[in-house]
Amino acid sequence: MKTRDSLLLATRLFLGILFLYAATDKILHPAAFSETVLNYHLLPEPLVNIFALWLPVAEFVVGLLLVAGIWSKAMSGIVFAMLCMFLIAIVQSVARGIDTHCGCFTQGGEGTPISYLTVIRDLAFLAVSGLSLWIETERPTWRLFRG
Amino acid sequence: MKTHLIRAAIVLAASLLLALGINAARPDGVPLIRPSKEALALRAGITPIQLDTAKLLLEDPKVLFVDARPRNVWKRGRIPGAINFPEEVSDSLMQGFRDTVALDRPLVVYCDGEECRSSDLLSKKLSQVGYKYVYLFFGGWVQWRDAGERTEK
Predict the structure, then answer these.
(1) In this structure, what DSSP letter does residue B131 have?
(2) Residues of chain B neighbouring A45 (CB-CB closer than 8 A)
(3) Which residues are CB-neighbours of A143 under 8 A, at least 6 positions away?
(4) First and final CA of chain A: distance in angstroms?
(5) How far apart are CA B99 and CA A115, in angstroms?
(6) What's the whole-model pTM score?
(7) What is the ipTM of this complex?
(8) How many other C-beta atoms lie within 10 A of the C-beta of residue A143?
(9) How far is B129 from chain A (nearest CA, A)?
(10) Cβ of B13: how many Cβ atoms within 10 Å?
(11) Cα(B103)–Cα(B133) distance, rounded to whole angstroms?
């Protein structure tokens, strides 16, 4: 297997599984995730629930397609755009001193409150996503495995 | 490029339809339009109050004002007599609070104001552990201070 293919496979699987993992708890606890979205103070209140329902399902579908390598360039683009959106939400919360939890992977106020460490973690994910988008070849994942 | 954008749009639109379908099918689905904070509080057994009611309740010695903001902020200024019960550490402090404050004592919970969430969260927790009369003052510290009401440090 070529180095580029190995790198592409690794970034695809990492981001795809990351999105599947991130989506699961949000899908299981829609009311708690709605609270999390509200706490960011970025959306008008009437739109919060629709967004909180849509985002995790989109994360799940995109993660699944990315792992499978279906429409992978488009999925990589969505992952990159979503990570940019998360980064903006986190940075503005930290900057405004909003006392909230990230809600990135678990809901219901679990985990540590957002901080600059959350920003650094998201920047690292964004870097992997940027690399994935750059080297994406649209080859299905099973073909990458076969080399 | 155009093909990728169309594919992305298809996936995002399909996800929205799927999300709405899942939500409609599940028993714990949420309403598409989020109810107001007041409606949510009432549903949780909490009474939302305005400034005028908060002023009246302050005159009643049986009522305890609970400040859900962090301790350093509470120290800089608060509604007279308000005790500090920071929401972010409320889980660890709850048992001690229950041991010292009777469950039938009326509580007025507040934080900074309309934008903060800690009073919502704390009032829900207090209601869940058995406090019968929980009032939520949405206007909070900012409305109280801006109205020129008495404060203490």
Answers:
(1) -
(2) 34, 36-37
(3) A69
(4) 4
(5) 33
(6) 0.71
(7) 0.87
(8) 12
(9) 17
(10) 12
(11) 8
What are the tokens at B96? 């001690």
B13, two tokens: 């639109």
User: Please, are residues B122 and B66 in contact by the beta-carbon 8 Å criterion?
Assistant: yes
- SS3 letters across A58-79: HHHHHHHHHHHCCCHHHHHHHH
The DSSP result for A85-106, as a single string, is HHHHHHHHHHHHT---B--SS-
**Mean pLDDT, all residues of chain A:** 88
Are A69 and A141 within 8 A, CB to CB? yes
Instruction: Give B121-149 pLDDT, tens digit per residue.
Output: 899 889 989 999 999 998 999 999 999 99
Place of tokens 């552990």: B129
**Surface of A (44-73) touching B: CB under 8 A:** 45-46, 48-50, 52-54, 56-58, 60-62, 65, 71, 73
CA angle A115, A117, A123 (to 5 degrees): 115
Strands B83-84, B107-110: pairing kind: unpaired
Nearest to A23 by CA among B5, B22, B121, B27: B22
Tell me the residue length of chain A: 147
